[in-house]
Amino acid sequence: MIIDCHGHFTTAPKELQAFRDEQIAGLKQPAEPRTKRGLTITDDQLREAVQPQLKFQSDRGTDVTIFSPRASAMAHHIGDLTTSTHWTEHCNDLIYRVCELFPKNFVGVCQLPQTPGVTPDTSIAELKRCVNELGFVGCNLNPDPSGGMWNAPPLTDKHWYPFYEAMVELDVPAMVHVSASCNPNFHATGAHYLNADTTAFMQFLTADLFKDFPTLRMIIPHGGGAVPFHWGRYRGLAQDMKRPPLPDLMRDNVFFDTCVYHQAGVDLLMKVVPHENILFGSEMVGAVRGIDPETGHYYDDTKRYVDAAAISDGDRARILEGNARKVYPRIAKRL
Amino acid sequence: MIIDCHGHFTTAPKELQAFRDEQIAGLKQPAEPRTKRGLTITDDQLREAVQPQLKFQSDRGTDVTIFSPRASAMAHHIGDLTTSTHWTEHCNDLIYRVCELFPKNFVGVCQLPQTPGVTPDTSIAELKRCVNELGFVGCNLNPDPSGGMWNAPPLTDKHWYPFYEAMVELDVPAMVHVSASCNPNFHATGAHYLNADTTAFMQFLTADLFKDFPTLRMIIPHGGGAVPFHWGRYRGLAQDMKRPPLPDLMRDNVFFDTCVYHQAGVDLLMKVVPHENILFGSEMVGAVRGIDPETGHYYDDTKRYVDAAAISDGDRARILEGNARKVYPRIAKRL
């Protein structure tokens, strides 16, 4: 079985965006009541909406996608906690319905109702609802709910600890994933995402978060941002700072996915990062949608790169399935 | 001749830091006059201070270093334009003196008196002084003078255009280089530097800056941040956005250095990035000071990685010398 740990519902029915547009328009009338109106989306609409993902699974030979709401649309910086809660519940409910409709193809991971300046404690209830009631196996945690202003404390700050306690109690990991950028310096998928990955890794390297939470698990997507390319820099920084060697730092706690869209990049990832810390992921249908004229295949068909990488078959199996089962233990009940 | 395009005076005599400490302490007495007191540093002190760099040049077989003030100490976010101007002039004057003492070993690149919220026009006078009077061949341009708040306009914004006009008129390039981070999310050398590199590349990719300034040249240090590792992502993003192919985008305008501290990283850089857009650089004495136990050599001895890379001798010569002469044409008068 091949598990893609990184897929987003980027193809949701337009009714979802209509709700969001209405919600954003409503922010201009702060005196109006803050009700959460229902969404009218049929099962047939949902079946139709995930056809692209199903076709990619079938074409690429993958089995199941760990599926979460569209990352760039989380936009935690818009509105307040009520805005974010209503929006998040709808997004997660749709993921739940897709997973129920196609239980062999999708397993849910939730968005959180994070809000700039608001404690992440307020996301615990939604995490519990999604895991306990909807059968989700993890969450996407935004280290920068401000959308590019970076004014929340680092992920290693005690600010986040109550939320981590809930993750540990539920035995679910988080993918560290920012959302849209409202900072004109940062293109979302071309800068903000990768910067957040790099930033999170260095935060983990410089603090003792995983001494405090030995079973806390974080997936850094997009191949770990800049980290594998600068593996020597990070090894040297850890050494200069008398921090643990990187494989010890990562061992049970920090994982990179394979969302790196060319063979040379995936080859480097495999060459330097311990194979037990790599999870297969494609980010489909996601950041890059085109076909690479050099290969004739989709840029984000990352399974091809993993298949072609010079690694042992045992390691390939771990990357394609085994590591995901360890990082997301609740997936066993779903598959 | 081997030209290292990226060296900082990280070993300056302690009198320089004493000036800075005094200057920062003075910011707490805003009523006091803002005089720029002189620095008393002898030529012998300067000769002594650059012994580490000279020894590394000799040990590693490099000839000349394009030398600029310590990047993390620029700290444009401290104080105001007067603070930054006094500090910058002293830092640049020391670089000038080192270059005069060792004209075969060092060529100067200047820091700029950038200040958050102040137009970069105010840096033009110092650029001209350094180039016309001190014989410098380029500058370090900080895309985020706030030190991690990222509240300046992108590098492609007209905000920067008058400064670019001065660069073009003087025929000098800029290395895009941030300084210390006062944002607790961003470790300076482990996150902020690389994020800035990645961010700048994506800004260049998405705008027509080099149509407006066909001869403007920007060096993105640290191997281009995350870009080579995610070369497929950038190729795909450019394609999706109907932007030029990356080699066309970079050709005469965007260059990466080789400050990547392991063989596998440099190999990837050489594999994907056009060789005419790579300049040899080591960042010494800089971000990582240790010896790699896997090789027995300094992490930042990047010449070893370039020497071992599978590229033609012609390309190696271009990377080690020829490209730097093209990007920094004023170097010809100095060497």
Q: Would you list the SSEs of chain A in sequence order as H and E?
A: EHHHEHEHEHEHHEHHEHEEEHHH
In one word, what is the shape of chain A? Answer: globular
Task: Provide mean pLDDT of chain A, rounded.
Answer: 97
Oligomeric state of this protein: homodimer
Helix content of chain A: 40-55%
Query: Main interface pair?
Result: A-B, 59 and 59 residues
What is the count of β-strands of chain A? Answer: 10
Structural class from helices and strands of chain A? alpha/beta
Physical arrangement of strands within the biggest beta sheet of chain A: 4-5-6-7-8
Count the helices of chain A. How many? 14
| Biggest sheet architecture of chain A | 5 strands, parallel
Low-confidence stretches of chain A: none
Strand percent estimate of chain A: 5-15%
- Using the CA coordinates, give the radius of gyration of chain A: 19 Å
